[in-house]
Design a protein that fits this description.
126 residues, 5-stranded mixed β-sheet, alpha/beta, Beta-carbonic Anhydrase, Chain A
């Protein structure tokens, strides 16, 4: 069995498109899903140490026990947890990637944006 991990918003509208995309993108059988409202903002601003510790604990299980081969961090249109506009959410996603990369420098980490039509768009690395 093969795995990747997604740090995703809890919003149910984004779950299925993201899982389908990641299974194909990384050619994996399963996607471990870590959800919070607006996780890109939380990880970018380090705004809640308790939630960040929880995310990192769950990510560690996915990486160490499931041998997750990649991590995706998601932002999306119409997010209640992070109501910032798309351009600002892209910055949050980039900062979140940088933060997670400090813990897992050898794993591919990508950013995803889910647009107003619930399509998954991979954010090109800068």
């Amino acid at each position: 069995m093969s795995f990747c991990t997604v740090i995703n918003c809890m919003d149910g509208r984004v779950q299925e498109p993201v899982i389908k995309y990641l299974k194909k993108r990384f050619n994996v059988d399963h996607v471990d899903t870590i959800t919070e409202p607006g996780p890109n903002l939380i990880l970018a601003e380090h705004s809640d140490a308790h939630i960040i510790d929880s995310i990192l604990t769950r990510l560690k299980i996915s990486v160490e026990r499931h041998n997750s081969k990649a991590v995706a961090i998601v932002g999306h249109h119409d997010c209640a947890g992070n109501p910032a506009p798309r351009e600002l959410q892209f910055i949050h996603i980039e900062k979140a990637i940088h933060f997670i990369r400090q813990y897992y420098p050898d794993i591919e980490i990508i950013g995803l944006w889910i647009d107003e039509d619930w399509r998954v768009n991979e954010i090109p690395p800068r």
